[in-house]
Amino acid sequence: MALKTFKPTSAGVRHAVLVDRSNLKKGRPYLPLTEKLNGKAGRNNQGKITTRHQGGKEKNLYRKIDFKRENHGVAGVVETIEYDPNRTAFIALIKFTNGERRYILAPDGLKVGGEIMSGETAPIKVGNALMLKDIPQGTMVHAVEMFPGKGAMIARSAGTSIQVMGGDKGYIQLKMPSGEFRLVRETCFATIGTVSNTDNKNVKLGKAGRRRNKGVRPGVRGVAMSTKHPHGGGQGKGGRHGTGGPKKDRWGNPIGKRTRRLRNPNNKFIIKRRQEKNRFKSYKTVI
Question: Over the stretch 54-103, which tens digit does the pLDDT of each residue have?
């Protein structure tokens, strides 16, 4: 998909850069594969805000995506490529030869009228789902299972992909989008190709109203608050954060602190951790 810009007829479109979705299906989705999606608005059952900066989202229907690709050995034809407001990637409506229809994540390069298949007999082709042991080394895949039969959990966002690096003893080594190397069981399914809508990372909404339609409410910077925030207080820009030290949230917890459990049982499957930014950054006190 290409990007589109607008003539600066107003401040809201002057810097806006959006994805051109003119080639996608127009109209409502396939209703049997949708369900009602209740809005949360960041509140609990008492109506109190428990998650800030959420609310006011446009009402949407949830599209049920086939992350397991269980229709093995049955060929399907791509009927439509559609926009999904609940995710960054586009989705494809597949009609199988047995009459069943399912939504899948649309890989980059999949066209209307194309054929896809899943299972051991499926060829190495964009959109086909196979076990990792049947996928050649060096192939780019997406929608990868972490546990056999549980459904795709990795690389489902727009433009993401994972490289199959080969394996041994029942495990396949994968190079994750973050640069991490991880072992996954060879019986896990993965889909060939890269997730669609690769230009999503270049989108600029251009105005606050588009962000509000996505359910994001305004957020106030900590340095603009009072002494109730660790960054607040002082005269002008002389807040407490200006004296140096790590950034903190409103409760005083350091931002960027590792939250992964040291004894996470999945640590044994990580061969090489991702390269972390500012890992050895030191904070200097400003006098």
Answer: 999 999 999 999 999 999 999 999 999 999 999 999 999 999 999 999 99
Task: Let me know: does 128 contact 116? Beta carbons within 8 Å.
Answer: yes
CA angle 245, 249, 253 (to 5 degrees): 70
DSSP state of 89: S
Q: In whole angstroms, what is the distance from residue 224 CA to residue 240 CA?
A: 11
User: What's this model's pTM, rounded to 2 decimal places?
Assistant: 0.87
Rama region for 99: left / alpha / beta (φ>0; ψ in -120 to 50; rest): left
Which ranges of the chain does DSSP label H, i.e. alpha helix?
A: 11-14, 208-213
- In whole angstroms, give the CA distance from residue 231 to residue 80: 50
Specify the CATH architecture of the domain 225-287.
Irregular (4.10)
Q: Using CA atoms, how far apart are residues 89 and 152, in angstroms rounded to an integer?
A: 14
Round to whole Å and give the CA distance between 250 and 229.
Answer: 5
Separation between Cα atoms, residue 180 and residue 162, nearest integer Å: 10
CATH 2.40.50.140, the chain: domain bounds: 3-199
DSSP string, 147-168: STTS-EEES-STT--EEEEEEE
Q: Strands (DSSP E) along 124-283, which ranges?
A: 129-131, 140-142, 144-145, 152-154, 162-168, 171-175, 181-185, 189-192, 270-272
Tokens found for residue 205: 């909404």
The matching CATH number, chosen from 2.102.10.10, 3.20.20.120, 2.40.50.140, 2.40.110.10, for 3-199 is 2.40.50.140
- The token duo for 27 is 């109209």
Strands 270-272 and 140-142 come out as unpaired
